[in-house]
């Protein structure tokens, strides 16, 4: 463990510390501002600490703002999107990798082509569709389009292709059906890749803005990013300490989760970003 | 281009035995069905519908839905605001991709070679990526960029109008975006660095190679494929920029930051010209498809190498 503490390590350490300070400064500034009395937030010259440290802003934001409701909406929709995306994508990927059916090649090609379709350019037709289906201002409008994620199918498809068929053969011989094999052998075996894909889906869904912003106009169905966008547009006036308290409350959950599950998150993002390498 | 990536027949043999035993042909389709239904309804159909809308005069309420052929496209190509927003998008893409790739690599090299408190560096450089765009936008808009009490001017003693000066605003958007998203590329590079076999460096060390030699002739060449992938992913992400610009400058000042997705949103959702907005979107769509084709080529090469 105690390796040599060489001079070059010292130099790297100093450089890394300096960069980390710069990179963390905006977050630290948000936290510092949120702890100041409201009247001292815009003082010039800058002061990192006010005359006292107070949690008043947090109390006010939690009492009056919709932030708790938005956080619940975000949590519920994100969990449902992640669950459905991973379940349906895994089933589809397994269907393509391990079974054969009529039209399989054409369907797989259709799904791979979908990787190129950016959801951002589909906002007008998707919105028209949601209006026609009467789903605007419901959770389903936020959830359903995000489940149609062809990249996830591709990542899992690549993974299932590499699972040795022998692992399934024994179960087939014992009389297990396709579905049993899928749920009791293949899925448990794929836990690392499923975790990676889940983490990736969770982060992107939790932070998605444009689509939920378009389909939730009712503060009761808004997700956290959309609710905060309303804050940007002025509901809080110029109460900076409260705005920064909202920023901290909205930003903290994923940062805390990151500190706790670092290893898995790093692997999940890297794995999915590199598309199932 | 996709047909070559379709399932190789490698798995066909064990499956064929089963085919005889049970009527599983339907099984395969049943596995695919749930995803396929959602995919057809919420990706394929909107893609088709969007193209149809781009050829029509439809408004957001669904009224006035007449086919007008390519009139929307002709209008878009003659529309200076469309060109301005397309230009802004391309400028943002180039300005953001260069530092996002280089800094991502720099941070990864630094952290990879450091032996201390790995979690702290990962949290520092990757943490901002975990913040929602609305959080990032609020923070920078309200507490970092304001001219007098903002963190940057306040610390450096400058008087820059970060968001109000048309010649500076796009750079401010790039700066915020780099801070916010570089962590993703940093992680991809870090993962790539960790997968380089250690014995290559040991062999080089025996040959008396310096740290610089190792970087130049082992590390960087082996990161080539990762770099190509990161560049393409970054181009795709930057072409789709919307959130932080919409939330911080709303496209201003004087249209200097308005990206094309925001222009499509403006004409479609506040100007109610949904048909025209779809045509603008599909112009961006073509650009993104071109970059995505490069991405698919990379994925395929990767798959070939790994198999």
TrEMBL record, chain A:
Transport recorded as keyword: yes
Q: Give compartment(s).
A: Cell membrane
Q: How does it sit in the membrane?
A: Multi-pass membrane protein
Q: Which Gene3D superfamilies match?
A: MetI-like
Q: Which SUPFAM superfamilies match?
A: MetI-like
Query: Residue limits of the ABC transmembrane type-1 domain?
Result: 71-261
Instruction: Name the CDD domains for this protein.
Output: TM_PBP2
- Which family is it part of? Belongs to the binding-protein-dependent transport system permease family.
What protein name does the entry list? Answer: Multiple sugar transport system permease protein
Q: Which organism is it from?
A: Nonomuraea angiospora
TrEMBL record, chain B:
What family does this chain come from, according to its entry?
Belongs to the binding-protein-dependent transport system permease family.
Start and end residues of each ABC transmembrane type-1 domain: 86-295
The record's PROSITE patterns line, in alphabetical order, gives:
ABC_TM1
**Organism, scientific name:** Nonomuraea angiospora
Record membrane topology: Multi-pass membrane protein
**One Pfam family per UniProt:** BPD_transp_1
**What is the recorded name of this protein?**
Multiple sugar transport system permease protein
Q: What is its main location?
A: membrane
Q: What's in the keyword line of the UniProt record?
A: Cell membrane, Membrane, Sugar transport, Transmembrane, Transmembrane helix, Transport
The record's subcellular location field reads: Cell membrane
Tell me the domain of life.
Answer: Bacteria
Which residue windows are transmembrane per the record? 29-48, 90-111, 123-145, 168-191, 222-242, 279-299
